[in-house]
Amino acid sequence: LAELDVRMAGRPGQSGPRVVALCGLGGAGKTSMAVEYAHRHLAEVGVCWQFAAEDPALLAAEFAVLAAQLGARELIDARDPVASVHGVLARAGAGWLVVFDNVLDPASVAQFMPPAGPGQVLITTQNQHWPPGQALDVPILEREVAADFLVNRTGDPDRAAARELAAELGGLPLALE
User: Fold this and answer.
1) How much is the pTM?
2) Which among 122, 119, 118, 86 is positioned nearest to 103, based on CA atoms?
3) 22 forms bridges with which residues in the sheet?
4) Residues 1-14: tens digit of each pLDDT
């Protein structure tokens, strides 16, 4: 989360939305990290929205929902909710955060990425191929950390069994939970 904060803060003179893609194995905690980041920064943004991005048709429909929430349909173009949302975000006075969850690859969300405005775009994905500086690896848990989690979560003090189970589950937080 500390590295994500640094990257989302941007560089001096940087214009346009800041983009970070949280990359890692399924179950590594990418979505949980994105939700925690959003929760921590909710007071700093005027708009915060999470899109399920696995299916482009559903993603387009979700943009229509956000456009309605923003009152954007009447302001820009009711026929194109993506352009309407982009227009509102580009003119936003306050920052905003948009999360695209479970993105297949950069091409699958390219048309949905806000091109302008004082915002942040956070992507969760298993795909490691993103433009330079955008990918942030979400690693699996080290065996001892995973074992500590299991001991604390279950209340069972058997560290050897916890280490063995942690190894069997590959250190994936979702599996450990």
Assistant:
1) 0.86
2) 122
3) 124, 136
4) 999 999 998 776 67
